[in-house]
Write a structure and sequence with these properties.
Helix content is about 40%, strand content about 20%. With about 280 residues, it is α+β, with helices and mostly antiparallel strands.
Length: about 280
């Protein structure tokens, strides 16, 4: 083969390689154009926007974390802190209605078997209280009141009518925190018995009556009245409005009285003794 033939063959090979190289570049440009078109279309969809934002957020977070590590290499290690639940105040028992001298609260509870009962709790307003140390006398704003005054002012016509329509009446006795626990629990019982006598005389009839001895107050109350302990020994009587068949009255009443502001809670006193009187 002559020198001219070799030169001609070399030039043909060079042209072929150049043509192949140009073809590969053209293919790359075409593929890039297709990829760019797909990316542009994808970013116009919701999924594409979400993916783009997610990627941006991840990159930003990573950058911040990296920055923090570099900027503050001597910072204290992270410690897991226990998040404690916020203590909620017990629900307030608001009076459903009131008379001149009493507040009447409508409450309901269930016994341990789930049987429902409803009650009207009649509480004399705070100016009517048991005389401290007495289980016979009540006072109004520091003055001892007679049985006749009590019947007309506290056990007025509306209260007597409500008690008279009850399925059962529960006379409640309480004692404030001062004094010996045993003596004050006995005093609370005598107050419940005295209340039962006063209510029985006021309404007459044959409605069943029980006493509920709550005993002595024993639960410090940081949010309660700081002016004294009179509020711990209110004059109180309960009308049983509904009692589901077979319901345990004591259990349902304890449940109804529990966890409510403005009403004596069984857990705040030393006893919960329910006794049938008539």
């Amino acid at each position: 083969m002559s020198l001219n033939d070799l030169k001609t063959g070399f030039q043909k090979t060079k042209k072929v390689r150049r043509a192949w190289s140009l073809y590969k570049w053209a293919e790359r440009i075409r593929n890039w154009h297709d990829w760019y078109a797909w990316i542009s279309g994808f970013l116009q969809t919701k999924a594409g926007v979400a993916a783009a934002l997610g990627s941006t957020a991840m990159l930003t977070t990573a950058a911040v974390v990296t920055h923090n590590i570099v900027a503050d290499p001597y910072s204290a290690p992270f410690e897991q802190t226990e998040i404690k639940p916020i203590a909620l105040a017990p629900p307030k028992a608001e009076p459903e209605r009131q008379t001149q001298s009493t507040l009447i609260f409508a409450i309901e509870g269930r016994d341990k078997a789930g049987r429902r009962s409803t009650f009207d709790v009649v509480v004399a307003k705070k100016e009517f209280l048991w005389v401290r140390g007495s289980s016979e006398q009540l006072e109004k704003e520091g003055r001892v009141v007679t049985d006749a005054e009590l019947a007309s002012d506290v056990l007025d016509e509306e209260v007597r009518r409500g008690l008279g329509n009850a399925k059962e009446i529960v006379a409640v006795g309480t004692a404030s925190q001062e004094g010996d626990a045993r003596e004050e629990t006995e005093r609370a019982l005598r107050r419940a018995q005295r209340t039962a006598e006063l209510v029985g005389s006021a309404i007459g009839g044959t409605t069943p009556v029980s006493t509920l001895n709550l005993g002595q107050y024993r639960d410090p109350c940081p949010t309660c009245d700081k002016g004294g302990t009179n509020w711990q020994r209110p004059f109180m009587v309960i009308a049983v409005k509904e009692l589901e068949a077979g319901a345990n009255l004591g259990e349902a009443l304890a449940d109804a009285m529990s966890g409510k502001q403005k009403l004596p809670s069984p857990r705040s006193y030393s006893a919960f003794e329910l006794t049938k009187v008539r």
